[in-house]
Write a structure and sequence with these properties.
The chain is α/β, with parallel strands linked by helices. Helices cover 45% and strands 16% of the residues. It has three domains: 4-22 and 237-366, 3-Layer(aba) Sandwich (Rossmann fold); 29-109 and 126-232, Rossmann fold, CATH 3.40.50.1980; 399-427, no CATH class. The chain contains 17 helices and 15 strands.
Length: 432
């Protein structure tokens, strides 16, 4: 198995690191043209367009969009009919995700100044949210939990889920997850047409206020285009893991942690930083040994060869500096005192601390959200959470006395900006 080896003492290390992290995020022009046409068609023709594209792309034969809606009875049946171990695992994961996100709920607040002026903030939930869940090559019930549960905890009144079902094949785990998470309506539609239906609304699919959830390049392009008409969570890039290890963890564990992200797709990125050159050799040997056991061997090998790296650093301090530059989606601190070291981490989507904390636990059941910023966007954005499904309104109630005091300030500033109506409006409220 080929994997890039770098050292921070290399003369061209900075350039090599930039090249390693480079990912072309610019929108593919051909995809964008196709998506633009689909969205325009959905906006114009509604149900008919969504149905036409769904039958064409997903190889289905529905005669109306209502045929592609999954009933609540079918969702409950999917949950009931799951094998006991899967049902229990799904419920346990949902309980942990719900418990964690309940602590994120933002309360409304206000305070009253000495003259009686009240200022504050009122927090309210979005009315209706659209959740896109990938289908086709892979199905992700965990994505249902991670998107739907925070929305419900936030108080969203209605959750509309879109999930493609190629050739009409429904995934029982996905439907069961929707039942557990409290999804209100589920439509078996996917691609750009699903995003358009959620954003614009059709005769059958109600328009939403925000669209969340991952998807392929067409879904990502559609989310970019409808942003502003609705909110979106993010436009995510390939999955990433950065492991910082002191050389004292079982090398097989670290190798498999790197594989856990590489198996997502060929563009995923897995990087290890370590101050022990011998340990890097051991991890490379473990990867060579373990790759033969992997069902997704070809995907992992391509990902590791194209975008992976084992990097020798001077010490853990240097490793943290590099990590803050990379701003990884997932950061594992497989070291002695991870809690203390974590205080130096400025940019990361999620921080997994200690040798026993593999990233896979965060994907499914630890509790925190697995929808995380990628492609260095952790420098300025955060994991999906309850706050993404709530909005804030400012509260301002000025007293009679306060109107005079604040009015004079406002009048002076408004006149300075040559906005005389603003000034006059404030002056009318001066206390006589």
């Amino acid at each position: 198995m080929d994997i890039r080896r770098l050292s921070t003492t290399d003369e061209n290390f900075d350039e090599a690191l930039k090249a390693l992290l480079a990912f072309e995020t610019a929108q593919d022009d051909k995809i964008d043209v196709v998506v633009a046409d689909i969205l325009k068609d959905v906006k114009t023709r509604g149900d008919a367009a969504v149905l036409e594209y769904t039958n064409r792309f997903d190889n289905t034969y529905a005669s109306s969009l209502s045929e592609l809606e999954v009933s609540q009875a079918e969702l409950r049946a999917a949950l009931t009919e799951l094998p006991e171990d899967q049902r229990a695992a799904l419920q346990a994961a949902a309980d942990r995700v719900r418990s964690y996100h309940e602590k994120q709920v933002m309360p409304s607040w206000n305070y009253t100044e000495d003259d009686g002026t009240l200022l504050g903030q009122q927090v309210t939930a979005l009315d209706r949210v659209g959740l896109y869940v990938p289908g086709g090559k892979a199905a992700y019930p965990s994505s249902v939990l991670m998107n739907a549960i925070p929305a419900k905890v936030a108080g969203v009144q209605e959750l509309i889920m879109a999930v493609p079902t190629p050739s009409g094949e429904k995934n029982a785990l996905v439907l069961a997850a929707a039942a557990i998470a409290g999804v209100d309506r589920v439509f078996c539609i996917g691609g750009a047409q699903a995003v358009g239906a959620l954003a614009y609304g059709t005769e059958t699919v109600p328009p939403v206020d925000k669209v969340t959830g991952p998807g392929n390049a067409y879904v990502a392009a559609a989310k970019r285009r409808v942003f502003g008409i609705v909110g979106i969570d993010m436009v995510a890039g390939p999955s990433e893991i950065l492991v910082i290890c002191d050389g004292k963890t079982n090398p097989d564990w670290i190798a498999m942690d790197l594989f856990s992200q590489a198996e997502h797709d060929e563009l995923a990125q897995s990087i290890l930083l370590c101050p022990d050159a011998d340990f890097l050799d051991k991890v490379a040997a473990s990867m060579q040994k373990l790759i033969e056991e992997m069902p997704r061997k070809d995907i992992i090998s391509t990902s590791i060869a194209d975008r992976g790296a084992l990097i020798l650093v001077k010490d853990l301090e240097e490793a943290i500096g590099i990590s803050n530059y990379i701003a990884p989606e997932h950061l594992e601190l497989s070291i002695e005192d991870p809690l203390e070291i974590s205080k130096k981490v400025k940019h990361a989507g999620a921080i997994f601390m200690g040798r026993d904390t593999c990233e896979a636990l965060g994907d499914y059941c630890a509790g925190p959200n697995h929808v995380l910023p990628t492609s260095r966007t952790a420098r300025f954005s955060s994991p999906l959470g309850v706050y993404d499904f709530q909005k804030r309104s400012s509260l301002i109630m000025v007293s009679n006395t306060g109107a005079s005091k604040l009015g004079k300030i406002a009048s002076t500033l408004a006149n300075g900006e040559s906005l005389q109506a603003h000034a006059r409006s404030a002056e009318y409220r001066f206390k006589k």
